[in-house]
Amino acid sequence: MIADFLVDAKRFSPLLLDGLWVTLVVSFATLICSTLLGAFWEALRLSGSAVLAGVSTSAITLIRSVPMMVQVFFAYFALPEIGIDMSPIVAGTLALSMGHSAYMAENFRLAIQSIDKGQLEAAQSMGMSRIRTFSRVIVPQALKSALPPYGNSAIMILKDSSLCAVITVPELTRQAQLLSAETFKTMNVFTLAALMYAAICIPTALLVRYSEKHLAGAKTGRAHD
Asked: Which residues, at least 6 apart from 8, have a Cβ–Cβ distance to it below 8 Å?
């Protein structure tokens, strides 16, 4: 059985690695786009305008209420009905970016809320503007607090990229489906695909865990000081 798996791994790896490359491209593009859009939602929420904050909160709530699969279908099958026609990769990346932007915004919100309010009051008492306070006081500290959940979001994006298989994006899961249908070696094909996902996700998860411990240690050290 092991020998058979090794033979199949040698046969199937080139096609699956091609799929893995597409997975990484889609995941990286989604990570960047969802980060920017999530920051945009949070900026609206912190703008000081009740209207903009309400728009942001409503958008985040709506996005989080719709399953990611439905968003992928909507981007690829529904938008063309109103003249917005995109390739599978673009539609999948757009849908995943929109879906994960809501979670990115929540990560940023929690990171900002973790900052001691005394520091904000001190900045205001020094006459710092809202923008200067945000850029020099809030952002540097929030980035440190947001790093661990940001890493977890990156892992979720990598795994959710498999949803793009339903709209024929040739990523890892889609290539595994095609190979399985062609060779009937479902066990070996998907075992190999699972190992490839794990080879990317496990090191990322370990890096996230290390960053959490490092940040916790740094906070403890400052507390003792």
From this structure: 183, 185, 188, 189, 192
* Residue whose entry in the numeric block shows the structure tokens 């709530």: 61
Please tell me the distance from the alpha carbon of residue 19 to that of residue 183, in angstroms, as a whole number: 17
CA separation for the pair 218, 179 (Å, rounded): 48
Note the pLDDT tens digit of each residue in 173-193: 999 999 999 999 999 999 999
Backbone angles phi, psi at 90, to 5 degrees: -65, -45
Q: Classify domain 2-224 at the CATH topology level.
A: MetI-like fold (1.10.3720)
Measured distance CA(121)–CA(172) in Å, rounded: 50
The rounded distance, in Å, linking the Cα atoms of 19 and 193 is 9
154 with 34: CB under 8 angstroms? no
Nearest to 56 by CA among 112, 105, 108: 105
Q: Under the phi-then-psi rule, with left for phi > 0, alpha for psi from -120 to 50, and beta for the rest, what region is 127?
A: left
pTM of the model: 0.86
Rg (CA), the chain: 21
What span, in angstroms and rounded, lies between the C-alpha atoms of 208 and 156?
13
How many CB atoms neighbour CB 223 within 10 A? 7
pLDDT score of 208: 81
Question: Cβ neighbours of residue 79 under 8 Å, at least 6 residues apart?
Answer: 85, 86, 91
More confident residue, 221 or 48: 48
Contact residues for 156 (Cβ-Cβ < 8 A; gap 6+): 100, 103
Q: For the chain, which residues make up each domain, given as ranges?
A: 2-224
